[in-house]
Each structure stands twice: as C-alpha cells, then as structure tokens.
Amino acid sequence: DSEHDPRLPGLSPTSGSLKPAMSLLLETDSKSLRSVNGSRRNSGSSLVSSSSASSNLSHLEEDSWILWGRIVNEWEDVRKKKEKQVKELVRKGIPHHFRAIVWQLLCSAQSMPIKDQYSELLKMTSPCEKLIRRDIARTYPEHNFFKEKDSLGQEVLFNVMKAYSLVDREVGYCQGSAFIVGLLLMQMPEEEAFCVFVKLMQDYRLRELFKPSMAELGLCMYQFECMIQEHLPELFVHFQSQSFHTSMYASSWFLTIFLTTFPLPIATRIFDIFMSEGLEIVFRVGLALLQMNQAELMQLDMEGMLQHFQKVIPHQFDGGPDKLIQAAYQVKYNSKKMKKLEKEYTTIKTKEMEEQVEIKVSISGLLEHKCNSNYNEDFVLQLEKELVQARLSEAESQCALKEMQDKVLDIEKRNNSFPDENNIARLQEELIAVKLREAEAIMGLKELRQQVKDLEEHWQRHLARTTGRWKDPPKKNAVNELQDELMTIRLREAETQAEIREIKQRMMEMETQNQINSNHLRRAEQEVISLHEKVQYLSAQNKGLLTQLSEAKRKQAEIECKNKEEVMAVRLREADSIAAVAELQQHIAELEIQKEEGKLQGQLNKSDSNQYIRELKDQIAELNHEVKSLPFFFFLRFYLFIHERQREAETQAEGEAGSM
C-alpha cells in the first residue's frame, strides 16, 4: 500500500480483460467507479496507494486484478458460496484500486437510502460543529491531504463528521471517529465515506464504543484483560504490579482500529480485515503485539511501558505487516468464551447499578409507604429523626467535599511548580491515556446524575399528586413539610455524593499526573548527578593530561639543550680536526721536501735509506693513528692520502734496493 497515482493501469487498453469485471460498476455507481479509477477530481481524497504504477503489470498483479475484478462483478454469489476464500484473500490485502468498492461491498453500504440525505444534512447546523473544527487539525496532521488548514481534505472530513452528528444525536461526535472517517476519505468520495461510516457505526459495534457512556469500550477492555491473564499470565501480573491498566495503552486500538498506532500502510491492511471480520482482529493483533514485546515490557516500569507503546511498537513493522498478521492468527481466539466474558461483565455492571440505585429504591419505597399510611405522632418523630440524620450526613458530605477541594487545589499548586517546558508534549500524550481510563468512572457518574434527575421527576410527580392534601389539618401539613424537606436533603445528599465521586476522579487523575512529573524529576536528577560525576572524572583526566603535557614540554626542552650542546661539541671537534689535518698536511709536505732533497743530493746509502724508510713508516703509522681519532669523513679522506704515500715509500724503497 504505497502512494496513489491517478492513473489506473488495470483499465488501460493494454489490460482489457478487466473491463467486463468492471462493467457492473459503470451501471450501478459512477462515483464508486471513479474511486476505483482513482481520479478523485470531485473529492480529491485518494492519497493512500501505490507509487507511479506502469501499465505493464507483472503476471502476479494481473492475476490478482482479474481475480478481484471477478469477485466484485459476482459479489453476491461469491459472498454466499466462497465466504472463507474471500476472507483469506482479504487477509492477504485488498489491491488499493479495488479497496473503495470492496469496503462498500463488505459492509453492504453501496446502496443506502441515507446517501440521498447527505446534501440536505450539510445545510443543517450541528451542535458539535465547534468540537469537530477543533479536532480537524489533529487528524492525520502529517498527511498531505489533511495537514493544510481549510484544505479540501479538512473540509470533506468536517462535512462527514457533521452529517453523522446530525443523524445520530445520541453519539454526536467522538474524537477517535475522525481517524476512521479520514481513512475512508482517502479511498472514496465523501458521500460513500459517509455511508460506509454509518454502516460501521451500526453493524460493527463502533456506535456502542463511541457512545458518551463508552460501555462497549469497558467491555472490550475487560475481555482483552482476561485474554492477557489467560495467555500471558506473567505479563498480566507485571501490569498489575505497576498499576498499568489495560485502558492506558489499548483504548486507542479499539477506538481507532490501530490507525493512531501504526503507519497508514500497516493500519490499512488491518482495517481491510476489520471490514471483513469485525473487532476480532483488534483482539488478535493486540495480543500478538504483547506476545512479541513481552520480554522488553517485563523490564520496564509504568512510564517506560507507556514510552515503549508510543515510540517503539509503531515502528516495529515498517518492513510490512505480514509478520504481524501471521502472528495475530496464531493467537487462540474463542468466540464462545468472549460471549461468556460479555455475560460476566454485564452481571458485574448490573450489580454495580443495583448498588447505585439503592438510594432511589429506598426513597421511592419510603414515599409509597408514607402516602399509604396514616399520619401519627410516632411517624412524625421518625421523620424528624431521619431529617436530623440527613442533615448530619449532608454536613459530613459538605466537609468531605471541602476537604477534597482543598486537596485538589494543593495538588494543582504542586503540579504548577513542576518544570514543564520540555515535558508538555509527553505529558499530554500520557494524560490522553489516563483520560481514557476515566471513561468508566464518568459513565457511573452520569448514571448517578440521571438517577438524581429521575428522583427529582418522581418527587415532582409526588408533589403533583399530593397538592390537594396541603389543605389538610396543620399536623398533616407539618408532616408533609418534613417529608418535603427530607426528600430535598436526600436529593442534595445524592448530588453531593456525585460531586465527591467526580472530585475523587479528578484527584486520581492529578495524582497520576503528579506521579509522572515526579518520575520525570527523579530521572532528571539522576541524569544531573551522572553528568556531574562525568564532569569530575573528565576534570581529573584533564588535569592528568595537563601534567603529562608540561612534563613532556620540560623533557623536550632538556633534549633540545642537549642537542645544542652536542652540536657545539661536534663543531668544536670538527674545528680541531680541521686544524689537525692542516698540521698533518704541512708535516707531510715537509717530509716530501726532505725526500726530494735526499734524492737530489744522492747522499743516501743503503743503511741511511733503510733508516729513513723506517722513520717514514713510523711517521705514517703515527699519522694513521691520529687520523683514526678524527671523524669518519676526515679519516676516510686522509686514510686514502696516507695509504697512497705509504705505497710510494714502499715503491721507492724497493727501487733503491734493486739498484744497490
């Protein structure tokens, strides 16, 4: 399910095999055909589909298109004879361009009389318009079709929600329903989307989910919690220990069919199955998610689990929903057991209702008894005692109410002192989950108020019946006045109890908020301590590095001084060597002069020549010794020079010996 292309390759001339399959659509509903063709020129609302499909479909795609074309064309026969095969196909995914018409066929919304009333409904005014306008911008805020203010998408979404609020005034408007309508508008024009939504509300239990009492949501939470207890007992115990109620994470799954949980391609596949099989898929997918994430959830506290459900789970199946859907159908789902759980929940709620109406029954019985009995002194005394007790009870209720109000104000002041600059968005998300948990409590509160209203009506009828009796003797009038006052006090007491319940609910919400804020602060303090320790460690490490750096600089300076001294010493030795070489050269020159003088004078005899040669050799040896003490390059140079002179001396000696 990728993004949508206005062209429909299946109906191009190159794939004429689908034209017979679509012929029925051309005759019955032109707008539905436009939704299949994907033109969207009227509503502009088909934006969830495949990217730039070419007209050359693969064989697999062609087979799928031909198959779905035949299913659509022969829907009635296929639905009756091959219902199981249709369900299997839907689980594998409905091709996008068929999704609009198949959804209408699955819920039997293709020919509803209410469709003709749609344009008239748009001309009327709904009391929910302000609420709808407020929430429009929050519905798919990142989607191109809905994100622009006053865009076509927002306008058609407002139209459908407004029309339904006029058709079903008991439900009116509920925030989660806008996501379902938004998805429908991505597939089909607004008139068809309106009809499909009406069908979903009527036949798929959504109407009961979205009623102000949200009784059906309470039932779903009860059934889902029992499934967790049966299939995942360890996780159930962990949730209980952390006070992590099912409604804190699962309410949105049932109210929006995972549309606010997963990206649209995955949520749309789940919605395909919902259109075919109803809320069962929500139970299956929900339990499959918990099974896949059990190990991680067991390691987290309440706040960590909330973050895991909000941040981690939505992106676990970005590669595709097949793995999730396969896991969902591995879950054991027993329809008979779900019916049994529904009966258990109804019994529990009935008992609660009986306890709540106990006041009403007792007062009604008292009125009936008093109307049919004779008035006497004992009865008057009894009424006076009951009046005193009722006043005491009212006073106690007022004190409790005042104490609760003071406590609420104190909690509000404490909450206002918490830093919320960086946590506002996160807290709002968490509070949404907490407010969903309030649904059942608010339901009980509304029922109690309704009972108070019934009591008032009953009392007014009683007054109307007994109007003529006020002309009786003064004693009877006094009794009637006491009865009137007693009933008034009882009614006020019931109203006070209702207010106390409401304040307790607010206290629970604010204490939860307070706990969340405290957790944030505790974690922030731990992070600050950790950062402080890191700073201290890095400071110590920095000091050590600075010490090492200064020591390295000192050693480098010492090495540089030594190098300079060595360079100076080498230069001095070099100067001494040069002077010594010059002196030796001079001495050698003198020796050569002496040798030449000896040759010229011819005064050398054999003994003198030998003596002279020995002296020369000794001098040469001394010079060799001195040269060896010089640096290598001077040594090499003079060694060659002296070696040459030595050879000359030996040659001369050999020549003289031969002449002798």
Automatic annotation (TrEMBL):
PROSITE patterns linked: TBC_RABGAP
Gene3D superfamilies: putative rabgap domain of human tbc1 domain family member 14 like domains (1.10.8.270), Ypt/Rab-GAP domain of gyp1p, domain 1 (1.10.10.750), Ypt/Rab-GAP domain of gyp1p, domain 3 (1.10.472.80)
Signal peptide: none
Region of interest: Disordered: 30-53
Name this polypeptide is given: Ecotropic viral integration site 5
Feature: compositional bias, Low complexity: 33-53
Start and end residues of each Rab-GAP TBC domain: 93-278
InterPro entries assigned to the protein according to its UniProt record, in alphabetical order: Rab-GAP-TBC_dom, Rab-GAP_TBC_sf, Rab_GAP_TBC_domain
Entry coiled-coil feature ranges: 438-541, 581-626
Keywords carried by this UniProt record: Coiled coil, Phosphoprotein
Pfam families in the cross-refs: RabGAP-TBC (PF00566)
Naturally occurring in which organism (per UniProt): Canis lupus dingo
GO terms, molecular function: GTPase activator activity; small GTPase binding
Alphabetized SMART domains for the sequence: TBC
